[in-house]
Amino acid sequence: MCVCCVYICVCVCVCTFSTSLLSYRRPGEPPLVSSWVPFIGKALEFRKDAHKFLEEQRRKYGDVFTVLIAGKYMTFIMDPLLYPNIIKHGRQLDFHKFTQEVVPSTFGYPPVLDEVYPGLWDQIRRSFQLLQGDNLSPLTESMMGNLMLVFRQDHFDQDGGWKTNSMYEFCSSAMFEATFLTIYGKPETGSRHVEMEKLREDFVKFDNVFPLLIAQIPIWLLGQTKAIREKLISYFLPQQMSRWSNMSQFIRRRSELFNQQGQLKDVHKLSSHPLAHHFAILWASVSNTIPATFWAAYYLVKHPEALQVVRQQILDVLRDGGVEFSPNRYTMLSRDQLDKLVFLESSINESLRLSSSSMNIRVAQEDFALRLDAKRSVDVRKGDIIALYPQSMHLDPEIYEDPQTFHFSRFVQDSRGKTDFYKNGQKLKYYLMPFGSGSTICPGRFFAMNEIKQFVCLLLLYFDLQLEDEHKHPSLVSNRAGLGILQPSTDVVLRYRRRAQ
Ligand code: HEM
User: Fold this and answer.
1) Ligand 1 — pocket residues by CB below 6 A?
2) Which residues bind substrate (predicted)?
3) What is the extent of the structural domain holding 350?
């Protein structure tokens, strides 16, 4: 039986009864998209092509409607002009409840409840600041060194001829390893962890079943996944981590927090707690960054005229900083220099716009009237999910002309980042949301943008680049709809050659 069939069987058996009780509507509630399938509701149609499915419902029901998806009543707010009201809504719409419920079981740690671990949840959240602000500079500097190391050792050979490689593999191996070295540090001996390839292989196996785990499919139904997850978690055993040097401040702080709690509450088996948390951070730091890097690099190689402009700006920024680039020398781009690369930033934003499919979820804490704008409100029930699905906004032709096409300079205006995008003649507060929104917005977003920029800079500076088959265009695999950056349906073969002086 395939995993999807298992999923359907489990869902139908467990919850047919409970959801059928809820499917009547009260006056004031948004229209309910009808479905004949108890519990599952529209899950399969959503999973097949979420954007298409939601657009169809919007045409039928308007900008606000409720859908039953895998046992949850989800009210979608489709008009991005209404987003600010939802995002700022604090008291009655909980931001963290959903993640608190599903994330711990996915990564294998107990929920961080205040009753059991007083204050820990807040402290964990405060540690996210160590990925931002002044802390971003050492992280960015370290990432540059690590990417340079991986590029030099794996891709700079002397013969200067054309080579070919899977483009996804190229991006994945370099970003996985360089990010790992930057966040968790270097091994005791040598500059690279010897087991890195094995670790990445196991990681990919886990990541492939991630959409099922987050949908709460029991891990025992998913083949070897439990054993693989345990192996991944055990990579972060304290005796191993204590030997790593150059660990980021972020991970050091988190280790400290868990160690303190461990002394206080060892009865709750906190010994397994930090390891699984470290593993969760590994997942958060690379699972979206790798496909995002692929799409950013792919679109530029596919559009040589854009690549040329982006490359020239990198060379100009280096020159303005007093460095004449030479392919035989080590290159360093500071955080300030990365900030000046507006064409590269725009290209990355454009590829994120085309490939991201995150869903912003809030849970209603009570029955109440949710105010949408000055004139409208809808009634929601306690436990209902309010969802924003920004992909619909990213592909809206009224906001983004020719929305399916990559325009590398779409986010540039007067040599600066463009921030004014309109719907119904009104300026949008939120127009690009690959990293979520509000208080749950991705804390690693600045680091992610910088590391993708760094990777693309090195690729463009050191190599001539071509696609082996220029006519092949991978589409987006929809099985991660709602979870982040979608992966390509097929890989493409990259041809690359060291650039001459
Ligand atoms: C292109 C790359 C990335 C994308 C598209 C991305 C996207 C996201 C999204 C959509 C969320 C959920 C936001 C929400 O619920 O509203 C999230 C959460 C998170 N991300 Fe990222 N992310 C990326 C890279 C990173 C990196 C590099 C790190 C760390 C170094 C990171 C760390 C986290 C963490 C820790 C959370 C959970 C935050 C919480 O519990 O509130 N992410 N990310």
Assistant:
1) 99, 131, 284-285, 288-289, 292, 356, 358, 360, 434-437, 440-444, 447-448, 484-485
2) 288
3) 120-354+429-498
